[in-house]
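Purpose: get a first structural picture of the assembly so the mutagenesis plan has something to point at.
Setup: two entries, given in the order below. No constraints added.
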Amino acid sequence: MVDQNVLDEVLGVALAHGGYFAEVFIESKVTDNLRLENHKIESFSSGRDRGAGLRVISGAATYFIHTDILEPAALLASAKELAIAVKAQRGAGHSPVLTRLQPVNATAVHPVAIPPDTVAQAAKADLARRADAEARRRSKNIQQVTVMLADSVQDIQVANSDGVYGIDKRTLTRIFVFAVTKSGERVESAHEAPGIQGGFELFETFTPEKAGRAAAERAQMLLTAVDAPSGSLPVVLGNGTGGVLFHEASGHGLEADAIRKGASVFAGRIGEVVAAPGVSAADDPSLPNRWGSFALDDEGVPARETLLIENGILRGFMYDLLTARLAGAEPTPNGRRQSFRHVPIPRMTNTYIKPGPDTLEDMLSGIKKGLYAKALGGGEVNPATGDYVFGVTEGYLIENGAITSPVRGAVLVGNGPQTLLDIQMVGSDLDFDAGMCGKAGQSVPAGTGQPSLKIKQLTVGGTGG
Amino acid sequence: MMKKEALVELAAKAADAARAAGADAADAYLTRGRRMSVDVYQGEPELFESAETAGAGIRAFRQGRLGYSYTTDLSEEGLAAAARVAYQNAAASDPDEFNGLPVTADSIMPDVDLDLTSEEYSRPTTAEKIAFALEVEKTALATDSRVTGSESVTYAEEEETVALANTAGFAGVYDRQTCYSFADVMAEEKGEIQTGFSYAAGHSLAELDAAATGREAAERAVVMLGGSTAPSATLTAVFDPLVFVQLLTAIAPALNAEAAQKGRSFLASDVGRRVAAAAFTLVDDGHLPAGLGSAPFDDEGVATQTTPVFEDGVLKTLLFNSYAARTAGTVSTGNGRRGSFHSVPGTSPTNMFVKPGEPDRAAIIAGVETGIYVMGLQGLHAGVSPVTGQFSAGAYGLRIKSGRLAEPIREVTIASTCAAILNNISAVGSDIRFVPMGASFGSPTVAVDGIVLSGR
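Result (structure tokens, whole complex):
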């Protein structure tokens, strides 16, 4: 990490020719990746990324530069280059007085019981082999099993001209199991990928066997699945992975950059009804050891809960420092970046719908014909319109109030704001899932959470007619 | 930038360091580059980025075991340390007889000029680059009064030197320069917002057209205003070139020979068979002059080539890196590629494109009685599986009625299989466009019959 006095000097040089805000972000990240396929550990890969990202904000314009070299001379040279760029655009400006750097007090803690660097390579290989063996044991139709085990430790240091000085260490551990089954000409696949902000204690609660079993059993079940129905149907979304729907269909529209540009259906609607009564949602990086958790965000803002929707009423947006300043709002801990090579932008952390009073049985009982989307895969949304699409990775028909045949190939199509209004029941069974969220060319770990939900109707696309 | 010769020399030293650490064989992939971009918003620059980047990835083999390590420290000591780690990492892998450096007669770099750089690249000033991006935004706003603003308008450029050396004596290096512009704009009418995008790329700013880029994004947004879902039907879908390109990116992983060998491709047993319509010819050309996916050699040091993948509907071959080639007892097609120095070489297309046909777009649409002109697909990565061939995605576009474009349609899905889509291609247009999405993918307008559209 870089000496605090050097960071102070770098901030001063960066603001020499104008701008009201300067920041330096230092990162050192080590990763380990192991890949198993075809019964073999194919490769073991590791590496280190280190560098600094510097920025100056002048007017509404951001000037950003990054470098792989952390020597003081290189950091100062980058700061000088930034200052010259500011001068070229704005003319020599007035420099603010730098506020003395003060350490930020982070209250959220995410203890790491078994740091990845204390786990031997052979032990990591063994975990992958256990997942593989269990997946193959669980299905007689297994054609292939792929296991990836990935861990990373990221140390960050952030300092800015408002006097913020913060450090954080983020440890991520995740296993990914992908199973392919085959019966006759028919091929199906499924995956399971739990992850935590934490170390290899992940495998004490979520054993490799559990991940292998889940992927294999799902891929096995799909071999007997019927083609998904198509048309407009009532849908019950399963707890856990279903949270990706709120993340995509509404969460992105609650990020302040989309709000600022009017590229969101939620712009200007704080205090209005945006969801059915009984629906509340929040974003919270302080949840202990969740996949999207941290102590400080990438701009030094301490982790805490941001209430987004309260009993159907829109209460808040997710900001980074720049969008908060432009909107005259309090920053929220949502300034995130993929690495020192990227500028921070407003991003979700762990976004979830809060639990309600209902049970899955009650949700199913009123449905004559519908779809139980137990697990969702990835999705895509246009935040400006709220239109979204999701793949259902594990789904079942609901017939006369009961879950019947498994279905395959279903996608859900809808409009985020409309879906929020169409939520008829909220379960008590909140659960979380881990994913990688892509936006503006940057990928960050994002947790999603949801209890079971009953939705009045959604367009289901399938080939079953 | 560091001299090309110096970078390739460092790569050779890094590979040698892995051998000195104990590896039987090794290769080192080094990149060093510089990039800048400017985003504009409401007539002002919003974000300037600039950076110099460098990285190295070292692959070490040890009795058939593979270890990999990467670093951003390109000093000789930094590379030597990474080389040792790569060798140590190999200990945790299982031996595989098909692991190893590519077997190739071309142990020297192929002598070709693929036109990957431009003398014009360095000419424009920062002010001219900003002016370009501003022009894109301004043109979009001026195209139609319903265009209300931009979500993002970017001009970006990147130059990079790529060097690769291995312990079998290969040493190669090349430069590439690329410029891009992206635009996402919004149109609004009666409280409804729609968005449109466009994209341009080349080897210098002079090759890009700001006004055309801005206009296209605006037109794509405006035309979708007033759309709604449609009744479910089976009909002909005419895919816009930029959309069929997206579809190609979703299907391409099934063309990876290693995926096929390991049971992860719906095309695994189809080589030599007619599995697409006769109008469909798909080429992967790593040698395409000035192609954004072109390179003299792949990321394992194998010379790139022109590979006919589908010819008149017949699947001629899959794409091979050296591992998959050795497994199959054949030679690499020069498709051993990696996203960056962070990862081991996998298999990826270079410039993959559908060979254009005769009719223009208007003629294809005129031949459709009832259909949809698809202007966008959503959720492809969730709904399309290169493993099973399942295809379902959200779609939006324009209805086609009696050979003419009509009202916009949104919130519908298309469900089919990749095989059925390839088999039911009924027309391929003359209007090819390329989009770099990892590899560079190109397609003209493509019509597909028998598409199941689900809506109301």
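The mean pLDDT of chain A is 94.
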